[in-house]
Amino acid sequence: MSVTSTAAKAAAPPRPQERLQIVIGGHVDHGKSTVIGRLLADTGSLPEGKLEQVRANCARHSKPFEYAFLLDALEDEQAQGITIDAARVFFTTAQRDYIIIDAPGHIEFLKNMVSGASRADAALLVIDAMEGVQENSRRHGYMMSMLGIRHIAVVINKMDLVGYDEAVYKHISAEYTAFLRQIGVEATCCIPVSGREGVGIAESSANMPWHKGPSVLEVLDGFPSATRAQDAPFRLSVQGVYKFTANGDDRRIVAGTVESGELRPGDAVVFYPSGKRSRVKSIEAFAANVPKQAGAGAATGFTLEEQIFVTRGELATRATERRPKVSRLLRVNLFWLGRAPLVCDKEYLLKIGSARVPMRLEEVQGVIDASDLTQQGTKTCVERHEVAKCTLKLGRPIAFDLAEHCATTSRFVIVEDYEICGGGIIDESLPDQQQWVREKVRQRESKWEPSGIDAERRWERYNQRATMLLISAASQTDRKSLARALEAQLFADGRLVYFLGIGNLLYGIDADIERTVEKRAEHLRRLGEVANLMLDAGMLLVVTAADIDEEEQALIAAAVGEERLEVIWIGGQRQTSPAVGALQLSEEETLEQQVGRIKGLLQETKAIFRPW
User: Fold this and answer.
1) Which of 412, 305, 397, 297 is nearest to 352 (CA)?
2) pTM more than 0.70
3) What is the pLDDT of residues 173-219, one digit of tens each?
4) Is the fold of 229-318 the same as that of 325-432?
5) For the chain, what are the domain ranges?
């Protein structure tokens, strides 16, 4: 739910550019939503009539008014008195704009809390003065630290119920700040408040003369600015590339949210993990004056001088600044919330920024319980509500920063069956088998001379999208017959297609290296480089190779681009490290049936179009 002040906007000066995202967490019924509701009411940040509307609704249903009802808009939340979703609240002070995320405290909805906290810059953690520090008080604090949130203020709520007793405040403050220190977080401050009575929310109160510290509102305005991240390297996770055609508008706009740094026209940019580069032509904005630059926190778009093909999930950076890490192998700290444990023999989905990649657990280095910090013995899985240091292996490389350099671009969540089941931060980039290839590709892209005809114009002319079809099977299985039949059919259909026999490379461009197991990776790298040239020309390229496994597939994908590679496997799959996502063909099928299935794959991926 979104709440924005209309009356305050009318009287306020132009809105500041600065914006901070705050997550509010804590144990169930400790008063998080009440604190936010009171904050909005006391600062005049509610839409006109909203407070009266909620009061009248409570009266109609013969229930006492609560400020939490200003946020808990879902019917079942009001019925049960708990927050299930993560409500988003927008409001503005003289200092800056805020997005406040009210995260659920009930243990069953911890995954919603993770979703809400995953993009926060700072946090308030609410603790009930009567109940004291509870299990989820500690869990939420641990999860916030795991997501790289380092600015956490502790709000000790319901002080009115303990007679504003300083001793109660000091006991809870000491206990919880000691817990935070154990997980490497120094609390910004502790604030005694009464959300229901409005004490200590918008201003200090005479009820607690012993408290000389700030109010909640003063703490919010005192948090370090997210836009100070403009001094950090530029990072933008690409959410989409939008092409305009109406009224002669031929712009192609790369869009996303600036995580850190800033971008100006003329800046040289590099996209990772592809390594492609260009230069910014213009910064774009929807229904607004064209800005001169894009800074941290801004949802923005920009056009490029040299048109290159980039995809959702890539990380845009400035060429003159520190490069992000790129790898398929990560050392991470994660927490697990799934009902079934995180195990090694299952595929999950990892989401970081706008990237979505298949993921497997490789190794568990250590496990602790997030509520009491007790260490667990050696384990091969991660149980629900445990925190672990693990090694993860991804289906394809991603670009990211380490938590110590940029928390936002190191945060990830793990999805199983369409539900968030875990999350954490990346602590270390481990070398994988394709690292040397990616470095060569990066060097290639830095010197690449782009054609004056961009990829989309070629696709329009040829009525196809450049794709490499890699046909593989066990070494004794016939692959060339299918490759030639496929080439012949696609050519007959009017496609620009070519079958590249592996012997053309082995006795040509590869004539200077031996045909040994040790040199196989270099043979495949060179295959990828030749394929990249032909794909750049817009071809459908058919290639055969024996026994391609997951690592070799990743090597070729690093050279040609993951989005331009489709793997077809004939016969029984390899038992070890099989190619990922391959189209499986049976040796019992006729050539005509196999060709038909491959054409279906090309149609599904929109490499070619289905006939009307």
Assistant:
1) 412
2) yes
3) 999 999 999 888 889 999 999 988 888 988 777 789 999 889 998 99
4) yes
5) 6-224, 229-318, 325-432, 461-604
